[in-house]
Amino acid sequence: MRALVVEDDPRIADDLDRALSASGFRVERLSDGESAWFRGGTESYDLIVLDLNLPRLDGLTVLKRWRAEGCNAPVLILTARGAWTERVEGIDAGADDYLPKPFRMEELIARARALVRRAGGHGAALQQFGRLTVDLNRMSASLDGIPVPVTPLEFRLVAYLALNRDRVVAPSELLEHLYGDDDSREANALEALVARLRRKLGPGVIATRRGFGYHLDERA
């Protein structure tokens, strides 16, 4: 899952980066509104954490521009502003959730996970596909109730397919959402990752639709 954190306080940005990364997100960071407006309008994210008090362009203006331009990524607003009128303004501008500072990181992660699930049309943290169960909160997978050891990258792959269970996901989309800017984004890296997961989950769980991409097969 690919997350964009837009926060100009380096300490808070570091904390968000660590917490989201530990929760299965691939995090990218920006510290000003103008860069965020451009990145959010040209890239695809599963979650955006947006501070309102940003240099160069305030967060509320960024959010309004994103929504006007068709950016539909779930947006969680962070702000030190506590007035209920400002919270209403943020929600009306297109925010999906709102968390005032200071906040507990555990609450932010819970809200982030819920936003990603709802964006995929799934309210439950447990996703079932035949013998396979994917626990989006615990970042785990099991077959017939028996835990399957998966690496963070392997979990990101199976979780992304679970959250997009109603469609075939193209390799290019998976590469974009799984790998960081400094990681290998070659197609053969993705093929190797899928092959490793198939050895752990069984050959029929991750299905290939030739020429289109991958999906989880509930009949496996």
UniProtKB/TrEMBL annotation:
<dbReference type="InterPro" id="IPR039420">
    <property type="entry name" value="WalR-like"/>
</dbReference>
<dbReference type="InterPro" id="IPR011006">
    <property type="entry name" value="CheY-like_superfamily"/>
</dbReference>
<feature type="domain" description="Response regulatory">
    <location>
        <begin position="2"/>
        <end position="116"/>
    </location>
</feature>
<dbReference type="GO" id="GO:0005829">
    <property type="term" value="C:cytosol"/>
</dbReference>
<keyword id="KW-0804">Transcription</keyword>
<dbReference type="GO" id="GO:0006355">
    <property type="term" value="P:regulation of DNA-templated transcription"/>
</dbReference>
<keyword id="KW-0238">DNA-binding</keyword>
<dbReference type="Pfam" id="PF00486">
    <property type="entry name" value="Trans_reg_C"/>
</dbReference>
<feature type="modified residue" description="4-aspartylphosphate">
    <location>
        <position position="51"/>
    </location>
</feature>
<dbReference type="GO" id="GO:0000976">
    <property type="term" value="F:transcription cis-regulatory region binding"/>
</dbReference>
<dbReference type="InterPro" id="IPR001867">
    <property type="entry name" value="OmpR/PhoB-type_DNA-bd"/>
</dbReference>
<keyword id="KW-0805">Transcription regulation</keyword>
<dbReference type="InterPro" id="IPR036388">
    <property type="entry name" value="WH-like_DNA-bd_sf"/>
</dbReference>
<keyword id="KW-0902">Two-component regulatory system</keyword>
<dbReference type="Pfam" id="PF00072">
    <property type="entry name" value="Response_reg"/>
</dbReference>
<dbReference type="GO" id="GO:0032993">
    <property type="term" value="C:protein-DNA complex"/>
</dbReference>
<keyword id="KW-0597">Phosphoprotein</keyword>
<protein>
    <submittedName>
        <fullName>DNA-binding response regulator, OmpR family, contains REC and winged-helix (WHTH) domain</fullName>
    </submittedName>
</protein>
<dbReference type="InterPro" id="IPR001789">
    <property type="entry name" value="Sig_transdc_resp-reg_receiver"/>
</dbReference>
<feature type="DNA-binding region" description="OmpR/PhoB-type">
    <location>
        <begin position="124"/>
        <end position="218"/>
    </location>
</feature>
<feature type="domain" description="OmpR/PhoB-type">
    <location>
        <begin position="124"/>
        <end position="218"/>
    </location>
</feature>
<dbReference type="GO" id="GO:0000156">
    <property type="term" value="F:phosphorelay response regulator activity"/>
</dbReference>
